[in-house]
Structures
1.
Amino acid sequence: MYHQMKMMMYGVRDDERPFIEQWQEQNHIDVQLTDQLLTEETVDQARGYDGIVAFQQLSYSNRMLQRMTEIGIYNLSLRNVGVDNIDLKQVAKLGIKLTNVPVYSPEAIAEFTVTQLMQLLRRTKEYTQKFEKHDFRWAPQISKELNQQTVGVIGTGHIGQCAIRIFQGFGAKVIAYDKFHNPELERQGLYVDTLDELYCQATVITLHIPLFPSTQHMIDATAIAKMNPGVIILNAARGQLIDEQALIDGLDRGIIGGAALDVMEDEIKVFNRNLGDQKIDYPEFNNLFSRDNVLISPHTAFYTDVAVRNMVEVSLNNNRQLIETGTADNLISTD
Ligand code: NAD
């Protein structure tokens, strides 16, 4: 008998629904939606489906993965890039095929990063606080100009390259560090050979590298001690790249002049929740959030119409490809 392909999609937000409906209409495939996250408790809802599509900051537990295979599902497609919240060894051991969306809109993250830098340079947080009290004087919040900055870009992949183009458009001097050099940026002579050189020259540092054991806490007290006094640090990559206590000490000592954090070490405690008046049990967050020269955003750099459409369409295409062929263009290697 002909088997009609069926997919189960977890963690669905309302803003994704129009793009999902459009894809369903074009592909004539049944996609069951739930706003629940993919956990050991919810995975059984996918029984009878051919594949699962998911997106969440919460870790995908090994027990959930185990259960997935017990109910006969081996196709898992993530709607985002990062696979740091899933145990790839377990994925390989269980024979699960995993895909991601490697690129959905690098421009979204790059534009957000530059926006945050502009806000820090123009001290908008302080102005907003003053204006809310109907204090419309401009002094003493004198600002800095982006065209006067030396921006050190760490990681020149998809997002880093977009960010570089935008920074250059503003007339900033850009220097870059990456383990692998992009030929076009190399031709422009942007690369420095060591992180120490970048720390020594940059007045702004922006992170666009993945989180690996080797990059965890790369911005620590030792790194910060090498930076220019007053440096601004931007992180829209991964929270654990920065040792938050070292960042706080750097801000206290004036080595760091400001920071914009779209990601944080323990963000799962705070981001994507409506906490109302609840006490926040995250001392570093509370400390950083209270500062005039620190901007925190809840992992929203990616969140644009273009990015969401691509995350939905590419992940559904990936899942369909897995179900139909047993492999996919965006298959994650678990070697
Ligand atoms: P990418 O893979 O295109 O680029 C990453 C770059 O980092 C590569 O050029 C690589 O050579 C370089 N790199 C890796 N390890 C390095 C190291 N130890 N030292 C120096 N360079 C190193 O990735 P991308 O699409 O540009 O994304 C970058 C990061 O942004 C992602 O890993 C992810 O953590 C983060 N991200 C955040 C959001 C958000 O909403 N805030 C959204 C998407 C991605």
2.
Amino acid sequence: MRWSRLFIPTLRDDPSDAEAPSHRLMLRAGLIRQLGAGLYSKLPLGQRVLRRIEAIVREEMERIGAQEFHHPALHPAEIWRESGRWDAISDEMFRLRDRKQAEMCLGMTHEEIFTWVARAELRSYKQLPQIWYQIQTKFRDEARPKSGVLRAREFIMKDSYSFDADDAGLDRSFDLHAGAYARIFERCGVDAIPVEASSGAMGGSASVEFMARSDAGEDWIVLCDGCSYSANLEKATSAVAAVDDPGDAAPVERFPTPGVRTIDDLARLEGGAPADRQIKTLVQMVDGEPVLLLLRGDHDLNEVKLAEATGSTDARPAHPEECRAALGALPGSLGAVGVSAVQILADDALRGRRSMTTGANEDDFHLRHVDVERDIEGARWVSLRNVEEGDACVECGKPLRVVKSIEVGHIFKLGLRYSESMGANVLDANGKEVPLVMGSYGIGMERIMAAAIEAHHDDNGILWPAAIAPFDVVVSPVKAKDAEQARVSEQLYEQLGAAGLAVLLDDRDERAGVKFKDADLIGIPWRVVVGPRALKNGNVELAERATGAASEVALDAVVGQLREKTA
Ligand code: ATP
Ligand code: MG
């Protein structure tokens, strides 16, 4: 294609409202424009990149035997009522009414819709396994649309769903997806680490997220450099360094702590205790009932872990009066010693701890010499705390790192969650009705595009990974009006195109500097410069965007070399 005929509205300056490098560069390189909050138009160059990503995704999905569908994005409310999600999902779902006042929504995902087809059409285990997918628009009214297309309110997802007769089948479908995802990310130049993730309170037995390290991401993951351990912060565990508790078996002792409200207050108080020798007692109302949460004084609660431990997402911190009603004291003096009427969840970092200090359930009093296992009864041990940088790996003991990342894909063992609620069964080998065992698998098209830019850019612009670049090579005459340069450029353009490369001919009547700057900004991997000096020797200059390396190449060798380099 000829640049002079293309619509590539590059911007000289950084847009003021874009922070993430991918957001900034997608605007500057003319890939996208913002229509509204979380709504982006893809301009031709952005669309070319998306098409290439989609082609890779299709290839890898078909390689694992997946079959392409296309469902409506507009759904009747009834189908979402069947699974219970019409009520379970709150503001994230776009809802509307049609002209007959029937309730509808815009699909944020398609479990219900694929399950509806499976329920109606699949009869026997002999038809299984099935893997069905689509590449389609999703709508989510995100609370905080952010970083351009990374968190949008309308985006394109490849979503797939597997249907098997049993758990072993689901394991196979899940592993096939894990392999397909690894290949997709590799081909797209995105280094995505598979991490264990929380399956959430909605059930499901295993879930793996694919995370691309980037400061533009919104998810924290925990990595071990010593071994391959990796997990989402919501799921990660760590071995905490042992704290040397005094070995005494002294009985619990109550002591006055006037005005002490926080962990820090008690750490500063003479006769108090350092944070790691305190028990932090939090009260949450879970499904309307108080639950006591115990953590080490210097540890933080992870709310997703709490949801996983209780099986409920309906939780909030108790109000002071609710604390008093449950325990007889206000926050600042709460504890679990002697408590039996309230459910207690204790973080496993407190296991075996002795001589701890905690609230006495009496305002302005605390207890010392608390032996957690001796003095606190009925606590259920769970993981509640956030792993912190430097904690020891549970697998190998090396220090863990906590890093920010972008979730680019998510694979999920749903099990019977939808088949049971929606009644999707098949007959097994004995002629008995059994529910379909399902998995669901999502991958964001725009997120791959943005994650690739996050990982591959420099001060001058984008450095596209070869497989998803909008063009493979740009041919740039230094002076488009020069007859000889124009002739050679046209000839190369023809030949490269005939050799199967996606070629852009920069035939604009612009200064060479401007053309090179634009080409760097939009990130074409290879550039052929047709200029007077090299031409005298029958050569052109071949430059690689990623490394900046340039060399003179004989005119008749250019096509062969580029064909090799882009193969
Ligand atoms: P997040 O935690 O980032 O909101 P999610 O868990 O809601 O993601 P899934 O429902 O698993 O995401 O969706 C599958 C994939 O769709 C994600 O891995 C991501 O690539 C993409 N995706 C999800 N939400 C958005 C969004 N708001 N904008 C762009 N892509 C998205
Ligand atoms: Mg989300």
3.
Amino acid sequence: MGLLVQNGEIVTSESRYFADIYVEDETITKIGPALQAPAGTEIIDARGKLIFPGFIDPHVHIHLPFMGTFAKDNYATASKAALIGGTTSFIEMCCPARKDDLLASYYLWKSKAEGLSACDYAFHMAVTRCDDNLEAQLRLVIDDGTASLKIFLSYKGAFAIDDGEMYRTLQLAKKLGAMVTAHCENAELISRLQQELVSQGRTGPQWHEPSRPEFVEAEGTGRFAAFLEATGASGYVVHLSCAPALRIALDARKRGVNLAVESVLPHFLLDKTYADREGVEGMQYVMSPPLREKENQRTLWEGLASGDIDTVGTDHCPFDLAQKMMGREAFPLIPNGLPGLEDRVNLMYTYGVKRGALSLHRFVDALSTRASRLFGLYPRKGTIAVGSDADLVIFDTEYRGTISARTHSMNCDYSAFEGVAIEGRPAVVTVRGKVQVRDGNFVGEYGRGRFLRRDAMQAG
Ligand code: URP
Ligand code: ZN
Ligand code: ZN
């Protein structure tokens, strides 16, 4: 059965116009005024609503063994939350521990999604160790359609790789045509600063930010850029949080380094004072890079508006209050990460577009189109065009509501944005032509989500 969306206003990263959208077999086949459809076609009236391409979150964690525990979501809870929030595809970080086999981990991560996800998904494959099998294993992963990698310069003794391993990984990425995403903080400096602070009795969550100051992130960003320059690989800095790191990334870009920048939802709206709160309330806000001095937010919003910052992800990584309490004796033991997958679109619309910090087109670009282009999904995803997947977000700009853990779908007993107002939310969300969300409720089908194969870039 076809689907006809009538009377809505289509907004892409480049254009805005009134037209109907007709969908057959999961794909948009017609866009135009007053389209007719055969009897039996499902009709959605989008009068008064904006129609966006399905949003793409380029950075989430779902299955994640980390810091002695596991992130809380699974593919059912995460994909439901994503869809309610207007995200129709996400890219999960596949993060094996250093001791684990890369290929076995890749298949394990995929198995967690298969048959369960309600939205489409892809992976960035983390390289957490370099051994003699690396090239052969990466070839298999990339041939399978996962053409982007992840490296961590942070998390000493867990995910971090050293400079030699970074060089080898970037060389291989260049050869095999894979984009490399990187967490850019200096692992050694963090480890030393953590030890010093704890030995001085500075053990609360408010000391998390001083243990990873801005220069630690700037150093990591500059080092990653230098290694990209040396190897000719293409890179993407994940969750960039502060002005010094952005300056270094942009300088590298000016020199011709192929480097894209992502910032994530919490850094636009929350600052380091949240981690000053007493007890577990402060622990809720421990993530890395940490929440920063508020003045960085202006840099991030301006960088986003200008396109210097390419994308907005969430770095969704929920740990519940009991898990956060694992760090009650010392902040380095607090599991790092915040929930946010469900809230990104509504919050960036409210505090970006509605407050005049972000044009509607840049909003669509940063939350959907740019990620689809960077990670090999365009034009299947990231736009509304004939031939594209019918992932549509029919957005109600009149909706008014408040974020709360009591009503969200993420599997986490707190919200980092508890009580924050939103002005707009998705009324209807489709995944390849099937309605998965209506009026804030999941009405869809688990297992409908598909693994998104992405081709390698032209290697050279
Ligand atoms: O604090 C964070 N960001 N947790 C998730 C792991 C990572 O570094 O992305
Ligand atoms: Zn990270
Ligand atoms: Zn992350």
